[in-house]
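ok here's Membrane-associated protein Hem, seq below lol
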Amino acid sequence: MSRALVPSQQKIAEKLTILNDRANGMLIRIYNIKKTLQNADKKPAFFSDKNMEQVTRNIIRRFPNIDPKSNTYSAVNQVKGEVIKSLSLYYNTFVDILDLKDHIIQLLTTMGACQITLDISSNYDLTKNYLDLIVTYVCIMVIVSKIDDRKTILGLYHLGHEFQHGSGEPAFPRLGQMIIDYDPPMKKMAEEFVPHARFLLPALLSLHVIYPRRNLPADQMRSSQILSLLSEPSKLMNVPNTDIIQCEYLSQDVMERWIIFGLMLCYQRLSEPQPWDLWKTALQSGYIVQLCRDEVLHIHSYIAAFFDSLKGQHIQHKRVTEVKDFQQHALQTSPGLHRERRKFLRTALKELALIYTDQPGLLGPKVLLVFQALSMARDEIFWLLRHFDNPPSKRHNIKLSQEDFIDRQIPELLFYMEELKALVRKYNQVIQRFYVQYLSGYDAVLLNQLIQNWSTCPEDESVILSSIYSTISAMSIKQVENNDLFDFRGVRLDWFRLQAYTSMSKSAIKLQDQGDMAKHLNMVVFHTKMVDYLDEMLIETADLSIYCFYTALFEHQFKLCMEFPAQHRYSIVFPMICGHFMNATHDLCPEERHSIGTSSVQYAHWFLKDISEEVNQVITHICEEQCQLSYKLLPKHSAVAISQSYQRRKAKDKKNKAIQEPEKPGTESIRKNRENFTRMDKLHMALTELCFALNYCNIIQVRDHGFVPREFFLQLLEARFNKALVGMMMYNPETNEIAKPSELLSGVRAMMNVLQSIENYVSIDIARVFNNVLPQQTQPSDGFSGEKTITFNYTVWYLEVLMWKVTCNIGQIVYSPNQKAFVSLTTEGQVPFIAEEYADLTELKALAELIGPYGMKYMSERLMIHVANQVDELKKLVIANKETLQLLRTSFDKPDTMRELCRKLQNVDSVLLRMTIVGVLLSFHTLCQEALQDVLDERIPFLMGSIRDLQQHVPATKDNMIVSDMAAASGLYCPVDPTLCAALRTQKSEFTEDAYTIACLLMVFVAVSLPKLAKSETSFFKASLEGHLNNSHCLAKAINALAGAMFTIYGPGDLEERLKEFLALASSSMLRLGQETDKEAIKNRDSVYLLLDQIVQESPFLTMDLLESCFPYALLRNAYHSVYKLSAADH
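and the structure came out like this:
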């Protein structure tokens, strides 16, 4: 005697929940196996072993009857350990699928025995889970049949197990039979489902109301005002009145899979009108059906092959013809249909987003529209992805329009999906408050009334209904205000159980007869989800993790978005979608979490980097335009206007044609209308759109990473700005060309103005960019990439190029103290190098503004190293003439002895040349210091005043060097240059033991060598420049600076005495020129006399009185008179 089935003991609701989750996990596992085995690189190594080829052929031919004792399989014995290790995961997955199949068949048999009635409009959860389980089961078996190596894997593992353990794997016989039976799978499954068809078909037919409403053309959707909040203004605050609330956001894609696979299993019923209508509509909607992720079926071909396999059934030939007609219809019409639907959804979602943003309170009563819109949009995106990636075969001879698949506006649709999701998350408390009050104030009251109206109610059902009522009636608004966590999973599971109990044929209460109760409890379940299940609802209706498996198309859509300016603002949606990727993972496949997570992070990084680079590219173009405009305003361009003015006056006098006016700066701002878009307008429009994208969200969560779009942009902006600064120098080491500092400064300021304007577009601190980048340019190498900076390049150019030109081309470039510049004296036939365009006070002030005190200090240090090198060479010359110089030092009052000793000196010209080089370098240094001082006086006047006070009032002790360092770094004059002292101190020299004596003798050498300058033609003093043509006037600076530095470092503090000694020797040597009779020797005697005055003027320790005691003032006065007179005559 058979025992009656007790509904509560069957646990149908619980089993459906668990088996659905397990089936989804197994589907992903078998999908991963298929993908792995398709990749030859990921296959186990022994698959490609030649010794195994015969084995695999035998396994496939004899499967599943494999005899391990056969010598054919001896090769497996040699690698049995590797076989077991490599194939265990694959084999166990097949075993798990077999186990799952058994449980599914058992559950379906139990549900059949209970004679459960399925109708999605009443027992939604039961029907949905039932159909989901069947479709997932079908997908698993189809993918299993598509794994080419399935027999090889099972056979090899069985043999390896036999060889290692002495017995075959226990599950192998049943596994082998399953593989044989389900090849092809649909025929066997259709046979299995013959007894279940009477339950499956009603479930599918319950979709006949829902599915056609979802599968409308765009025109009908538009005319029906689907997804419109404003269609009925009077009902704007009302909760939607629907009998099938959970079906409203059910995926069309899911329903089509239910219909297609379900009716394939019940193909005998296709002759009936309702199944036929569903079948026809579903097959005309598209030609690709998803199995798992990007694993798909060309469904019409698959169905045709299935019907062909059903031999002996003449009606199936007709079915094949019909399917081919559906395929033709789908190929011709579905791409256009879905394209128009995407257009409709773009405007509909945009309208919803705008209204909800303006009135977030509407999210309470009208939140259902959000989930409907998200579900419909996601279905369209899924359709596009799988159809774009799987074009129909050429044998169909249909040319599809690319416009139907290459949707340039897809980013906009994706963006508004994310916008609606963000609004739901942002205003989740608004939704919670509304539905908590609705549940306790209306749903609980109505539920109680419905329970009271039931005349009889079994105990189990009564307990469930009472529990649901007590749970929802006990809710209050205080729980939302206190941020209490809600959990209604128990309520929803209770309703699921109740559906199972009341859907059985022998149930005392038939749910189908209690339409009001079913409708209301479905409504209650939806309302509870709005309180505690919002995030999961958003995943259910708007998860786009499918993009993880269509990465090529994902990249393609992003590139199209970046190429289409109108879609730039929506580009941020691509990194946001990367945050969905982890939703594709399952607990039964933990091994793929790492790879999917890594992929999501990499793509988010790539997208944000690309967006940021695009913004930076636009900014660069704007900067280039602004730099060009700024360049037109440079003073040098006024020469053209002056020339044109002169030509105009000349033409007026001669009554000639009018001279064509040059284009003046500012004409680009004159507009006659707003229709003509200039390049700058387009760039600013692009910048606005891209900055909207960057500014859209503060942080994007991807796996366990948080991406801040603005930080991405800032980092790239800093790097690009840093690179642009150096690039604007236009420095070419091969040709030694470089931009003038003033022009570079003008360009930098123009660029900074553009960058400052970016704060109007995106919420960033541009001052941070300046503070991070500009100080880097004051150092010899930047901290971003270690590249050379403005400071380094200008230092190299001024010291290695300009100073080399000054010192090597004697008489061509002169330092002019009155013009405060190095001036080029060009001769005919030469291409002029205009030194004053780079080395006057204005240009050096511009340089000081660019590289600041740190950069100028670096330049000073490098310059002083050059000086120290020259001093080292001078010391060698002193050593070579040491004895003669010692005698000269003590014989300055003996003219005849001095004359004889001077003739014995060697390398006099070399000494003068090197001292002149030192003087030129120090003159340039002084010019740089003056420029820096002017800049700092303007920028930090109060701080400069404090530094001057310190310099003046700190006693002249060794501690004074710290103050001198600070003063020198600020551009202030120091009697003893601390930078030169530091350079001389660190210079490795062979003469450290007798350094003081050498320093004294060097001063003697210079003093007695000065008269020799009178022989040189280039020693002529040019009054207009206040300098000698060979820069010998720079000797004054060299003598004083070197004396100050050397006697401070080496001497016992007798700097003043040593300078007096030098002046005595120099005066004595100069006076000997008056006794010379050789005209060649005294050619520029008057010009050389002036050096004594310049040395005294330059020195803080010597006075004119001291000079007059050594050298007659009348000679100086006459020398000045003569020199200025000659200069005036030359001029």
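fwiw Residues 805-1103 form one domain. kinda neat tbh
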